[in-house]
Design a protein that fits this description.
It is a single chain. The chain is of the alpha+beta class. It has helices spanning 3-16, 25-31, 86-91, 112-121, 123-149, 152-162, 164-169, 172-179, 183-193; strands at residues 33-37, 42-44, 53-58, 61-67, 70-77, 81-83, 98-101, 105-110. It has a domain at 3-121: Sandwich (Jelly Rolls), CATH 2.60.120.10. It has 9 helices and 8 strands. Strands 1-8-3-6 form a 4-stranded antiparallel beta sheet. Strands 2-7-4-5 form a 4-stranded antiparallel beta sheet. Strand 4 and strand 5 form a beta hairpin.
Amino acid sequence: MDASKKAITQRIQNIINDETLNNLIPEIIDSFNEFSLSKNEFLVKKGDPCRYFCFVESGILQYAVTVSGQEKTTYLALRNGFASSLKSFLQQTPSPKNIKALSACKLWGLTIGDFKHLIKNNRAFHQFYYNFIENQIFLIDDYRIDLLTLTPEERYKKLLINEPKLLQEVPLHYLASFLGISTRHMSRIRKNIN
């Protein structure tokens, strides 16, 4: 097994967390197709249907919406994560957001046909998807609570502890947008903490 497929396999096994389903994972892996995005290329543009559910082998994807003429980062998908405009992908409807490569990305994608086939016919993929969505809901809930209860400084410190690689890999203005603060305020916070 090559290194790329090994990375996807390990990530999916970690999410499934049930060794009795490991024999069903090769079908999942064989359904993914490799492709690349150049820096600033879109996985999906707002208004277009999302064509893939992806594993991010390398690179960073920015989820963004435009509010009052300003781009707001809503999520950052990193190496060993999964990415999709999920509602758009599953319903094949226009995406409400852009998903853009902030750096060159190597991705492994499932088409909607392969995704539906696996959900219906592969218990391991069904368990993977259930666990994946459950974890995403936990993350979204934590993020929303943090936006309401933590100061910008506390959100930055939490990011330093939980996601230090974001600070090394993602440009400042994207991180500031993700944390819900201005770039100027983010610079002050970094200066005061460092």
